[in-house]
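Appendix B, Record 12. Input sequence as logged:
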Amino acid sequence: MSLIKPFIIIVLCTFLVTCGNSNSKTNSFSITTNAKDNIIKVGQNLTLSIGNPNHIDISSITYQLNGKTIDESILLDTEKLGQQTITAIVKYNDTQEEISTTITILNDKLPEIYGYKIINEYPHDITSYTQGLEFHNGELYESTGQYGESKLRKVNYKTGDVIKNINLSKQYFGEGLTVLNNHIYQLTWQENTGFVYDVDTFEKTSSFKYGKSKEGWGICNDGQTLYKSDGTETIWLLNPETLTEDSKIQVYTNKGKIIGINEMEWVDGKIYANRYQKNGVAIINPKNGAVEGVIDFSPLRKLVTQHQGLDVLNGIAYNPETKTIFVTGKRWDKLFEVEVFKK
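Logged structural output:
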């Protein structure tokens, strides 16, 4: 497997969406951009104009990017990547018409290639279908999946001994977890439900429903905000108090979107993310969604006990005490401590 293969990219097609006032069945205008097929890269200038085939006398035009007013020419230097909506409010003859189009903003650089060095190997429960992994105060917390097998546990990572464990009800398929402000946030897959626990007692203190996202996959935090993946290219930003999906980023390279974003970990200002069914990790800029690097961990799978039910890499945890990264997989019997470096 090549280093780039875990992150095969798909060029995203764009499409035109138009809407007028309630009295108009068709639009008199259209938005034209300087971007070929409405695909443009960050760092480039976007120029907008209005198609006016009926030569209507226009009094004013206001352009917006995702609801924020912009000029007809704008340098795309701080915008988020992915599908973004351009809207034009065209005023004429004491009336106005609102039209919109979708553009796709790509990154302007190839992802950099990272390597890794194994520092240590530790035992890991071979029966655990690992979905989430995170360190807190030097101890490892893990969430596992599968209906009837899902768990939340605290583990001595050096010995593999389970310090604390609770089983989820059989109707829940456990997914990612993160620890913030002495609370554990654990997702479930298709049950549209997340759980909040006391980090010390594992007492369930509350639960929450998802918003626009339909599934729960991975979750991490930057000390203030929760970042939640849903299996697509979208990562949702959640307020830890209200647990509402306040905003989002979309994960893109210089070629297109990366889908299947799964288990995630916050590492030195970046999001490290597994891609579902792949043995690699993407390093994502949380400000705009750009994939800045990729790590191919596929050789690790050959270093664990080969058995029926062995699955792919899943589980990333950064230990701030050792400043190293720990990775494992679904039903792997080893937990690997690694150092990551740019090639």
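Residues 64 and 87 are 5 Å apart (CA to CA).
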